[in-house]
Amino acid sequence: MRKNLPDKKFLNKIKKYLIITGFLIIGLIYIFESQIEPFEEKCVLKQAKSISNTMINNAILNATDELKYTYSDLAKVKYSDNDEVKAITTVSENINNLKSKVLLNIQNDLDKNEMYYFTLPLGAYTQLTLINNWGPDVEINFRLSGSAKCKIESRFDSAGLNQTVHHIYMVVTTNITVMTPSFTKEKVYKSDYEIAQTVIVGNIPNTFADIDK
To answer: Residues 139, 106: contact at Cβ < 8 Å?
Structure first.
């Protein structure tokens, strides 16, 4: 007895649906993969910025704890005979010493060539809020290298009648190369930290010594 074979039209229809489904799956994979790289890069650079700021913060804290400089170790306020502020000058040796130690601390951290890790849930790659925390964790690793430079800046804020607060800041700029298995990116991060302040009594002159020279 002859078996009933599937209708040719039916087979063609199945084949057509399979081809369409295949193209849809390929299209979805392409769209998903095209989102992965920029999203992953954004997350890595965010982590790199956080690590850079932590390096700078630790470098400054370690240097200031070691040197124990106060405002008077970094700057001198000069008064006239009638107790008016004539100028503000810096103690260059101490300024340069502080900068050198901070830069050395940062460079030592960067030269370790340490591997950093963090994880993201698989659902985060869809960037859909409802499934953002779903799925297994995907581990991402990267390394940092680079260099840093710093300078000292100051700011004056009014503190009431005939009083001014003088803030001394260290501004640190890091030129960081972020390296992952899939991309390498160069970024510049800039941070500033207050390292000393004092209240100056008297009128501040319009011109004064550049705090970083």
So the answer is: no
The strand ranges marked E within the chain are 75-79, 85-90, 115-121, 137-158, 163-179, 184-201
What's the distance, Cα to Cα, between the start and end of the chain in Å? 104
Give dist(CA 171, CA 194) in Å, integer. Answer: 9
Would the pTM count as exceeding 0.85? no
- b/e per residue 58-72 (b: at least 16 CB within 10 A): ebbeebbeebebebe
Torsion sign, CA atoms 141, 146, 152, 155: negative
- What's the rounded Cα separation, in Å, for the pair 178 and 173? 15
Question: Residues 186, 177: contact at Cβ < 8 Å?
Answer: yes
Mean pLDDT score, 55-77 = 91
Q: Quick check: helix, strand or coil at residue 103?
A: helix
Q: pLDDT tens digits for 95-143?
A: 999 999 999 999 999 888 889 988 877 767 666 666 666 767 778 889 9
